[in-house]
Amino acid sequence: MSAARLVQVLAIAIFAAVVASDTCDGACPASAEIEHINPPSLFNGTDFGFAQIVTATNVRKKIWISGQTSQDTVPNVLGRTLDEQADGAIANVKRALEAVGATVDDIVHQQIFIANYNPDTDIPIVGKVTNAFKTSNGNFPSAELIGVQSLFTRELLIEIYTEAVLP
């Protein structure tokens, strides 16, 4: 397989976006209960845009959204800077959530990958990303920030992997 075809296949996988599975047999509860926990035995992640622990009960559907980048449906890379690409990746995560009837309130976990991560310059953009996924009641999903050498193409600077649950 040529490198160009591999990139195309990977892009298609990314924009396929959502793999969902039903997890209850028969009658499902009326609503999922998602609890965001920052126990006193760990530092409070809220100030950094994440919860230390998220639990979900009464769940009917689990959703795994492939890592979203700043690409259109062709897929062309949109934006040249980390800040510009963060906007595109955030928008694509929200589009994927919408495609399965979910919202940011349903997110339980995220991983943010940043190419050539530099904590001295990239923290404001990380804050922008985490704040974009703050729930309507002010909570954040559990999360990791992972600095990487490169994403699947050199032009891409950020990728956001997301897990959510629906009642």
TrEMBL record:
Keywords: Signal. It comes from the Eukaryota. Residues 1-21 form the signal peptide. InterPro entries: RutC-like_sf, YjgF/YER057c/UK114. Gene3D superfamilies: RutC-like. The keyword Cell membrane does not apply. CDD domains: YjgF_YER057c_UK114_family (cd00448). The keyword tRNA processing does not apply. SUPFAM superfamilies: YjgF-like (SSF55298). It holds the Pfam family Ribonuc_L-PSP. This is Uncharacterized protein. The lineage of its organism: Eukaryota, Viridiplantae, Chlorophyta, core chlorophytes, Ulvophyceae.
